[in-house]
Amino acid sequence: IKVKIPFGNKYLDAIFSVPERKPTYGVILTHGAGGDMNFPHLVSLAAYLAAHGVLCLRFTCKGLNIAYRTKAFKTVVEYLKLSDDYKLLGVFLAGRSMGSRAAASVIRQLSQEDDDDFIQGLVCLSYPLHRPKLQSKLRDEDLLFIRCPVLFVSGSADEMCEKQLLEGVVSKMKAPKKIHWIDKANHGMAVKGRTTDDVMEEINAQVFSWLREYIEPKHK
Fold it and tell me: What SUPFAM superfamilies does this protein map onto (predicted)?
């Protein structure tokens, strides 16, 4: 279901992937620095989540300014929270690359502003911990403030997220956290000798099984 979400004096394009039965939890998903919400990995994940009973709202926000992207993400969170069509108990924020930085930034900001527990967790796909070959400057400030559960899905050969550096940051995080390494994958999650669909199946299954750990106990 296509929707337009008011953002300042314009609109963000977004698409709901809606499960057959009424969902109680949702995921808000956005893309990296390039591309848009129709990036194949996002489309695949959204379809997988909806097929397994989780609502997914993915949106496009162009622009390479992280503050701008964060503001847009915040607007989408508010939109879904106030939606009359979908009364959700909570949402998980998810993003690919720069989108995951924006998601982390939103969670940090909202946790300082209000203490409701609408946001349940964070999913970082290919989190860009540093620029290629610039390992000395880590983008970890938001991660260290987050208290809700966080899942990282990263390639072990990601040129923007060196394995040891991410493990180091994660060991300092206070939040419940998990890293799933895609063996030999680069930042774009490409792996020599594996098809994109094969890699996506692994990612989708990982994301969903992690979500389920946090969703299911609340239903029992």
Answer: alpha/beta-Hydrolases
In CATH terms, the fold of domain 2-215 is Rossmann fold (3.40.50)
For 205, the token pair is 């299954």
Per-residue pLDDT of the chain (220 residues; tens, 9 = 90+): 998 988 989 999 999 999 998 888 999 999 999 889 999 999 999 999 999 999 999 999 988 889 999 999 999 999 999 888 888 989 999 999 999 999 999 999 888 776 668 899 999 999 999 999 888 899 998 999 999 999 999 999 999 999 999 999 999 999 999 999 999 999 999 999 999 999 999 999 999 999 999 886 655 4
C-alpha dihedral sign at 161, 163, 168, 174: positive
Report residue 72 as tokens: 């847009």
Radius of gyration of the chain (CA): 16
List CB contacts of 165: < 8 A, sequence separation 6 or more: 129, 130, 135, 138
- Residue in this structure with the two tokens 């924006």, named with its chain if needed: 102
DSSP, residue by residue, 46-114? HHHHHHTT-EEEEE----S-HHHHHHHHHHHHHHHHT-SS---SEEEEEEETHHHHHHHHHHHHHHHH-
Taking residue 202's Cβ as centre, other Cβ atoms within 10 Å add up to 18
Q: Which two tokens stand for residue 135?
A: 């390992």
Coil vs helix vs strand at 201: helix
Please name the residue that has the structure tokens 């300042």.
8
